[in-house]
Amino acid sequence: MDEATSNLPTPDEVRAQLERMTASDDFNRSPQLGAFLRFVVESVLQGKSDRIKAYTIGVDVLRRDAKFDPQLDPIVRVEATRLRRTIDRYYAGLGADDTIRIDLPRGSYIPTLTRRPAFPGVTAHSSTLDRFWSIRLLVVAAVALIVIAVVVALSQRRVPAPGVAMAPGTAQPAAAALPPGNGLPVLMVPPFEVSGMPGPRSIAALSLQETLSNAFTHFDLVNVQLESADHQVATGNETAPARDANANYRFSGSVEYADDGAARLSFRLIDVADGSIVWSRVFDRVLGGDDRAAAEERIVRELAGILLQPFGVIYTRQRAKVLDGTLTDPRYRCLVDVIDSFSSFDPAQQERGRDCLEQLTTRDPGFALGFSYLAAIYLRDYLYDLGTRPGDTPPLERGLTAARRGVELNPESSRAYEMLFVIQFARRDLAAAFDAANKAISLNRYDMRLLGSYGARLIASGDIDKGLATLRQAGNDGTVRPPFEEFFLFLGEYLRGDITSAVFHADQITNDSFQLGLIARALAAAARADSEAATRALSRLVALDPAWRDDTRGTLARFFYAPAIVDRLASDLAAAGLSGRS
User: Fold this and answer.
1) CATH code of the domain containing 373
2) 363 and 269 share a domain?
3) How many independent structural domains does the chain possess?
4) Do 504 and 573 reside in the same domain of the chain?
5) Per residue in 32-70, is it b (16+ CB within 10 Å) or e — as a string?
6) Does residue 330 fall inside a structural domain?
7) What does residue 194 show for φ and ψ, rounded to 5 degrees?
8) Which residues of 301-327 are buried (b: 16+ CB within 10 A; e: fewer)?
9) 254 vs 148, 260, 289, 299, CA distance in Å?
10) What are the pLDDT digits (tens) for 370-414?
11) What global pTM score does this model have?
12) Counting beta carbons within 10 angstroms of the beta carbon of residue 114, is it exposed (0 to 12), middle (13 to 18) or buried (19 or more)?
């Protein structure tokens, strides 16, 4: 037996590890995930890996009926994603010192079973002399590393946080360990309460919950946990959901059927910390009709947009907790600062965001969302010339590296693929860019900000009609459009000659630091023959970045792929009063 094979854990060791994992709090909160893990591990141990298919998992573990089609129902993929995240949480916490590692690799449902050696590179079948020298070398290396660390610590001074003065000679302390998990809030989704009897044309409560839960899991700023029906505690004559100490929010729903089959749908979002209801919504007299899937889709799209989009209810409440000091996880605090910088266009805030993300992705190399948002920071360095540092590689090279790392760490993240899309677009690799965009949309069709980003770049590449249609669709979720989307709606209507609509969208942009918004306002003012307003907007634009005056075409080309758009805007901006080398 070769060394690799002999060092594999025995079946008894694997089963003992399986029991430890499924008995932990991470798995106790979701017995369905424990059943999933037990099924795939036992199948491997019994030599029946060929049983591990999406269909058998769906039927044997997730209790789907014999008509279950994994191509139509994504429940197995969704639960596999949750299982991978739960395994990661377990080994980051309670299982950090476990010697047996059970993993579920991405792209497969067949688990890997490995032993984590106490001394990497030293195996049970090494000779005594080999082991002696291996351990001796490890000790020498460890001592050398300690000496180097001491020298570095003594030779460096602490780098102050922005705006904080440090006394000369103050030593830099070691970074505190990051809390377990990924720093994102946990949203618990218990089973809906159902009363009354549905009719043949009623919307189906179970199907609606599964669609909602599946949609929620594809948003990147929240962790979603599905509570099984048996995860309940009795309280007197009633049944109440067991309190989950690790959940930050509970999304509760009820479906009440009337005699004619119409349903009254009630939803609430509860902050677990204080039990307060932070949001609620009621849909009265909902009938599925002939197309129940379409009725479900409308409800899911609205709820996902309101609750889980960036700047939605959950993010807004979490942001408030960051600002008042209640929420202290450095990863979420950093994401809030970065996301805020996207609307403030404050160079100092952009710099803080870059600093904290670079530090956090070094401390936590598995911080997938951190890499994706770091790619966005680098893109903005390029587009808006917000500052470079000595020794920096070109921002789009840094951005591509970070975006690819985000995808590598979480290939099921639509946000990761969106960042890869926008970086590739800025690099003018349109084929690769739109491949990434299509992948992102396939991963989360409910993310309207992703759809808006896609529509904007369709317009920037010259596909005006499709881009406008996509942007309008992105605005149908009832949330406020970001200025970036308003600009491209302005641009599409402006290029089509609908000046009235273009002016309307330009007027929605009030941020005096958004450079594209200032262009829209200047051109809209020129179209209204308001030369004074056009001059004010252009003066502010040049104050933010003199390149708009000194190299108008080159600066426009950062944003727009189609030469005809660059030519038209350069000409119209010059006519509006932007003097310089156009």
Assistant:
1) 1.25.40.10
2) no
3) 5
4) yes
5) bbbbbbbbbbebbbeeeeeebebebbbbebbebeeebeb
6) no
7) -125, 135
8) bbbbbbbbbbebbbbebbbebbeeeeb
9) 61, 18, 20, 14
10) 999 999 999 999 998 876 778 889 999 999 999 999 999 999 999
11) 0.69
12) middle
Query: What number of residues does the chain have?
Result: 582
- Domain holding 358, by residue range, is 337-445
In a domain, 178, yes or no: no
DSSP H or E stretch at residue 279: strand 276-286
β-bridge pairing 276-286 and 263-271: antiparallel
265 and 154 both lie in a single domain: no
Question: Per the structure block, which two tokens stand in for 412?
Answer: 């099921």
Instruction: Give the model confidence (pLDDT) of 15-47 as tens digits.
Output: 999 999 998 887 877 778 888 999 999 999 988
Find out whether 556 and 570 touch, Cβ atoms under 8 Å: yes
Among residues 83, 109, 104, the alpha carbon closest in space to that of 26 is found at 83
CA-to-CA distance for 150 and 212, rounded, in angstroms?
Answer: 53
Structure tokens given for 482: 């970001």
Contact 218, 449 (CB under 8 A): no
**What is the SS3 string spanning 135-178?**
HHHHHHHHHHHHHHHHHHHHHCCCCCCCCCCCCCCCCCCCCCCC
Residue type present at position 379:
L
* Within a domain: 105: yes
